[in-house]
Amino acid sequence: MAGKCKWCSGDMEVFLPYARLSLCRSHFRNYVVRRVKRTIERYGMINSGERVLVALSGGKDSLVLLHILSTLRDSDDPKFSLKCEVEAVTLDLGIKGYSERCIAVARAHCEKLGVPHHTIKAAELAGFTMDDVASRRGRPTCSVCGVVKRYVLNKVGVEMGFDRLATGHNLDDEAAVLLSNYLSANVELLSRQSPVLPAREGMISRIKPLFEVSERETAMYAQFQGLAPVDGKCPYAIAPSTLKFKMVLNMLEEEVPTMKISMVRGFLEKVKPLLKKGETGPLRRCVACGYPSSSEVCSFCRLKKIYGPM
Ligand code: FES
Ligand code: ZN
Ligand code: ZN
Prior knowledge:
Number of helices: 12
Bound molecules: FE2/S2 (inorganic) cluster, zinc ion
CATH topology: Rossmann fold
Shape: globular
Radius of gyration: 20 Å
Strand content: 5-15%
CATH class: Alpha Beta
Structural class: alpha/beta
Largest sheet: 6 strands, mixed
Number of strands: 10
């Protein structure tokens, strides 16, 4: 790639069309870290001194998130520093071969970055592994897995006394979900879509510090920082329903480079305030486990009944 970095005499390694920026490797890193810090500040995601738990799957985005948060935590430069405690959790979902690799990758990166790491046997809490789910006919394993992950991560975060649960959702994820919700006119989901969800009784505050960083940027960041995500896909992975929306958005962004970020910011600033009503509807408690639920028995406890020991 020819050309020079906008901020030093180094060779350009990245061009960011939406900002018309040519950057060398180290200025690209600084640019992304600062952007994430600004996002955290703009949306009040982390207050000074708070304890943040990173949901670390071992995939690219969660590793990038861990790397950026630990960089902010360790920096003395006011432009980059953010005083907070960072720990990470990886769930053992009982997927033979794959779960072990995810845990090993997560643990190795945490050790390198000086981040305390927890492994939680989600399968033990649920009473079934994802391999059990896959061996029986019924719901797709991925959708059962999604319920288990959400439930267990929240429970662990609440019980370990963390202030925030941080996940690695990026701009492409957010924009695709937004488009999907718009197209299906799902006002309830739209009203809940947010990069920061406040804590409520029995629910930890959830934050998405990478939601203004594109998929392409997280991929480059991971590559430049030598982060090595888990090799290979989950054996039960199916193409996510948002894939087609991501493809459409990528096509549109070739014409309008600021498309995704304008769409997501525009939604948060102009549309969401009009939808605020549904956001904090009353939550009930699951009669089986006591955690918040929108129905009498929560989805996790219903799954336990279906897939757990007889
Ligand atoms: Fe949950 Fe693949 S990681 S089914
Ligand atoms: Zn530079
Ligand atoms: Zn329950």
